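Researcher: Structure for this, please.
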Amino acid sequence: MRVLVTGAAGFIGAALSQRLLGEGHAVLGLDNFNDYYDPALKESRVAPLCDHKRFQLVRADLADRAALEQAFADFEPEIVVNLAAQAGVRYSLKNPHAYGHSNLTGFLNLLECCRHHPVQHLVFASSSSVYGANGKIPFSTADPVNHPVSLYAATKKANELMAHSYSHLYGIPATGLRFFTVYGPWGRPDMAPMIFTRKILAGEPIDVFNHGKHKRDFTYIDDIVEGVARVMAHAPEGDEGWDPERPDPASSRAPWQLFNIGHNQPVELMHFIALLEQALGRKAKMNLLPMQPGDVETTYADIEPLADYTGYRPRTDIETGVEHFVRWYRDYHGVG
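Model: Predicted structure, token format:
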């Protein structure tokens, strides 16, 4: 298969691209290498991919319509996996226009390309953030998500709606995946595992919001990639039994669907910090702080629909995942 992976130099995009190349697929990776976090990490992630003869790299922004259209015309992808986005909840409070540029304009450009260069399946990244003010857990795709608490979450919800409209109008098979707190080797420096590890090793205090009462459905990168790969092979055809009088928010008569992809086992933040301390052999100094704007207290994924559809089950427990992450961190940063 010819697979276009946007955000190919990102955390999930690079890992997925490596998996697809190992399975014999041809991959076109697209990334703008922006400086939201250190581009050197992105370059390091993508460097091994460039050694594969079946991998091509395009340095471009999704919001650059001409560049995206050229990539589609040249590569003719059969499957598109959209992982490119402006990420980060807290960053959206200070830089809202970056989210409109990347997550709305960029995604619209991608949908237009899928319309004019028909693809077999569009798989796109959504986020657990869309659950916003919802209090019912575990979070279920059967529940409405109409109360986002950050602009980032609102743009991800918008992506789900935009994709549905294009599936309905133009028959584009599309699957949205709501990712839950992905962690592991090559992770993002703006996420808690990387921030905490760096500061603990440096003897600096870590900021622990909501006084450590957060719970997160930490999901190891290998499990995420496994789930995405399984979904890619199952393009939706539309649910003929979909009831417009009792509409299921996660399916449609159009070839469109939504799934949670997580570990299905929320972990208390203080327990996660304890595991980091154990793996690092250092105690953390903590600043216990109030809840941050845009944050939610608990994330917890109901993954049964995805399990029923693809057989997906996460395999990496939090203890093993943290050990693998810390081992990678020490090696990559040369920290003994």
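Researcher: Any notable elements?
Model: Residues 86 and 99 are 6 Å apart (CA to CA). The longest helix spans residues 96-116.
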